[in-house]
Known about the structure:
Elements: E1 4-8, E2 12-19, E3 34-38, H1 40-50, E4 55-59, H2 63-69, E5 77-78, E6 88-95, E7 101-105, H3 113-127, E8 132-136, H4 147-157, E9 161-165, H5 168-175, E10 181-182, H6 186-193, H7 198-207, E11 212-216, E12 222-226, E13 230-235, H8 246-260, H9 264-280, H10 291-294, E14 298-302, E15 305-306, E16 309-310
Helix pairs in contact: 1-8, 3-4, 5-6, 8-9
Amino acid sequence: MPRVITLTPAPALDVTITADSLRPGHSHRVAPAHRRLGGKGINVANILAQQGFDAQAMGLINERDVREAGGLDPRLALRFTDTDTPLRSTWSIFSVEDGDTAMFNEPAPPFTPEDYDRLAADVRRCATEAELLVVSGSVPANLDPGFLPALLGDVAAGGVDAIVDTQGRSLIDACAQRPLWVKPNHHELAAALGHDDVCAGAQQLLAAGARGVAVSMGADGLLLVTEQRGLHARLDAPVAGNPTGAGDAVVAALAAAHLTGEDLDAAAVRCIAWSAAAVLSPVAGTLPAQWEELSHRVDIREVHTTKGTAQ
């Protein structure tokens, strides 16, 4: 059985296009697009499988879409819950000239209540044999707000830890179930809490129940805060490439650090090295071998925290 299960609330067909440059109003000749089954949790699981961890991806996807999309690491176990709802698509268009990426994401489709019930039952059943559940990705608009907290609570009652990477009210509600980590980026944190103070926001999520908060901040690195310590980690110099999968690589690194028993400093190094390496990959959900070299370029400083604040 897999050591880690990932749940993607709204899987997608990820289409990545790399162009030399982007000129609005002009036609562009590009290399063949890369199409692969994706969504944040699936990307996390694919990275973990690629790095030798026993991982299983879960979510609501019909069998036809699984067959047609594909493109995942053969070592990744797939346990999808069948649905009649078609797979949504996302498009990532990366400009080599300026390093910018334009994202076009279809909204999460409205699955049926019966779909959600079957998905929850499948996750609960599979989680009994796992060490860690990762919930990663946007939540469909018609999903009952109590779905995720109830699922996390049931899994926690069985002794399984969780990492959650989602947005808005779902992020805040998940904290009450004492997840091992929550991982918003700084934009998601600001949107969820109504202010842009990253340190104070991380402390708010700790106060809401999360045991650890990891806030990704793009080229400014990563803030890792637990009840005991806080760290700010970043690469000594930014790398150029497609940043689409960097956040998923951070979540995968947090999972790997937990499974291998790494301390906070080692986890911070892994998070930065994996996220930087993901930027060098043309598509999300894969990790080039350069991550080991990049791990020697991570700068870490202590962040002093007090109850309710961080400095």
